[in-house]
Amino acid sequence: MTELEIDSLVKRFDDVIAVGGVSLTVKAGSLVALLGPSGCGKTTTLRMIAGLEQPTAGDIRFNGESVLPLQPEKRNIGMVFQRYVLFPHMNVAGNVGFGLRMRRLPKAEIAERVREVLEIVQLDGFERRFPSQLSGGQQQRVAIARTVITNPRVMLMDEPLSNLDAKLREEMRAFITDLQKRLQITTLFVTHDQVEAIELADQIGVMFDGNLVQFGTPEEIFNRPRTSRIADFMGATNLIVGTLERKGDGESVLTTSVQKLRVGHAPPHPVGSEVVATVRPEHIDLFPAAAGGDCAENCFSAAIEEAVYYGGTVSYQVRSGDFSLQIKDRSTRRFARGEGVIVRLNPENLWVFPEVGGEREAV
Amino acid sequence: MVSTRKRLPAPPQPGPRQHLLKRFYIPLMLAPVVVVFSSLFLGSLIVALLQSFGYAPLYNVDEFPTVRHYSQLISAPGFWQSVGLTFYYAIVPTIIGTAFSVYLALALRRRFYGKALFNYIYKLPLMIPYLVGVALIILLFANGGLIARTLFQLGLIESTRDFPRILLSHGGWGIMIVYLWKQIPFTTLIVFSVLIGLGPESEEAALTLGASRWQTLWHVTLPQIMPGIVSATIIVFAFNFGSFEVPFILGAKISPFTLPVEAWRAFDDADYTRRLRAMAIVMVISLISSLLLISYLSLYRFYERRRGRV
Ligand SMILES: Nc1ncnc2c1ncn2[C@@H]1O[C@H](COP(=O)(O)OP(=O)(O)OP(=O)(O)O)[C@@H](O)[C@H]1O
Ligand SMILES: [Mg+2]
């Protein structure tokens, strides 16, 4: 198994800095998702690892050994492209066996391996079909089969699911996790879909504008984003500005324009500094105004400004003073527009950004 | 609330006349082209065909039907040499030119110093008539031409006569150089466009799968640009096979001549009735090149079918 290490990788195209010094490690056999908005340099990073693009600076190492001197065909990586890129003039067997044919393995062995791999991707019986005769999902499985057959040291996947419809995407997601766990291939997976990243990855690297801004487990990125921009990208749109105070017993309290809020964890900011906290829309509790008495802490009354029903959840916009919060409620209870409610922010779900001021620029 | 939605009128049903119009719409639109094309092409072909079988009231000849002109042509001394020579001048530059053009088109995708200029210059012969190419070749390669004189001045040959005979010989290098001069840009342009349309992705996929540059070219690039190569070679070969003025001016002045030159010589004869033989030659040329193109195309289709395209 191979550990992939990217060290201060930079790529400059003329006057564009596509990747501006990214460092990360994909542990042997694990799957890391590179998550970021369009144009942040994800594909460029993958292409440098594959050897299709020369880095301007930095190093790429497999098990501690630099692969920069190696041509792409010598790196023994597997790359799955967004648009599949199957060879249209070869049938499925031809596509899947391609890597082994280029390595001049005996014909019988290739046929045997092709059969095995097609079975793994559940495409046995499709050997004679041509790419144009396959569905999108089937094409993508051929593309994956074509790379795993060569036992790549590192697997690179560039938004392999973005061309599939929602249902198929879910199936393929499960399929890829399964395959990756079974074959234990070190994998770097590029996506701009946070749900996909959270579901697939052992660790997530978030990239903005060519820089890696946070690297951690899906749980960390989801619940403890480092900046408001990451929080926003991860779907946490609620920002609460306040001044940090501490109580005697080490508890932190956020003084906001509406209410004093107790926060479960707070970074060691100096007392009195202005900070930004976030809470995910699905982590906020709503009660009818009448039930107000039961609520002990971090509660305040608010009015429903907007209520939109999506299958299974209701999305509310509530306001209290200059607080405006988005809330996703999965319960069967409905509040009407204009109705008064009690909002509770569980201290455990309130997350204060580690940067003072919370890097509020891009919200 | 008042409904603002209005009732939509029913869509017009196509009447019988509209049906007719629809059915004949495309043939009608094509009619002008078809008429011009068929009167020019089919008309002259039919006249040539009739004349070659002995029907030419214009020259007071009416032996229709006779195959005399064909049998005389085929049994004439040097006929098969003519056929061989025509093939030779057509095939050699087609093969050399295609190989060179593919190489050039591949090179043009890369970055190199002076690419913009080269990109412009290489297309120039496309805009210059063949005859200018012929003149250039004579200026350069004739025994009294620039190259021979330069070599003589440099003392590399003892007299300009020692310069190898490139023009007016059955080796035909002068002819083939003109063809290449014109056709390499043409084939390069076609192959290059196909390459650009193909994009780099499938080659990159091949590289990441462990194929060397050479294997990638052979197994991934060439098969995919084959349609472009086939179309270009068909056009180039057909042109070379039927070309008249280039071998007429630059070819040897003694028999054998290429078939088109033979046809012209027969046509240009003081004896009008020889024109019937010229028509027989024209028919033979057309027959050979269509047979060749058909077999080449069906071979290519067979190749494509084996690769799963239709
Ligand atoms: N060959 C190139 N020449 C110049 N600029 C490039 C080139 N390739 C990429 N870029 C630029 O580099 C930046 C990063 O591009 P990249 O393709 O890596 O983004 P990405 O994160 O993969 O985006 P997406 O999610 O849309 O695929 C972009 O601003 C892009 O315009
Ligand atoms: Mg991309």
Task: Describe, in plain words, how this protein is organized in 3D.
Chain A has helices at residues 42-50, 92-102, 107-120, 136-148, 166-183, 194-200, 218-223, 228-233; strands spanning 4-13, 16-26, 31-35, 57-62, 65-66, 77-80, 154-158, 186-191, 203-208, 211-216, 238-246, 252-255, 260-263, 274-279, 284-288, 299-310, 313-320, 323-329, 340-345, 351-352. In chain A, the strands form four sheets. A six-stranded mixed beta sheet of chain A has the order 6-7-8-3-9-10, sandwiched between helices. Helices cover 23% and strands 34% of the residues of chain A. Chain A has two domains: 4-229, P-loop containing nucleotide triphosphate hydrolases (Rossmann fold, 3-Layer(aba) Sandwich), CATH 3.40.50.300; 235-354, OB fold (Dihydrolipoamide Acetyltransferase, E2P) (Beta Barrel). With 363 residues, chain A is α+β, with helices and mostly antiparallel strands. Chain B has helices at 16-52, 68-75, 79-108, 115-121, 124-127, 130-141, 146-153, 173-198, 201-208, 213-242, 245-250, 259-267, 274-306; strands at residues 55-56, 61-62. In chain B, strands 1-2 form a two-stranded antiparallel sheet. Chain B has a domain at 84-248: Orthogonal Bundle (MetI-like fold). In chain B, α3 (79-108) runs parallel beside α8, α3 runs antiparallel to α10 and α9 packs antiparallel against α10 (213-242). The longest helix of chain B has 37 residues, at 16-52. By secondary structure, chain B is mostly helical. Chain B contains 13 helices and two strands; from the N terminus they run αββαααααααααααα. In chain B, β1 and β2 (61-62) form a beta hairpin. The complex binds adenosine-5'-triphosphate and magnesium ion. The site of adenosine-5'-triphosphate has 12 residues of chain A, from β2 and α1.
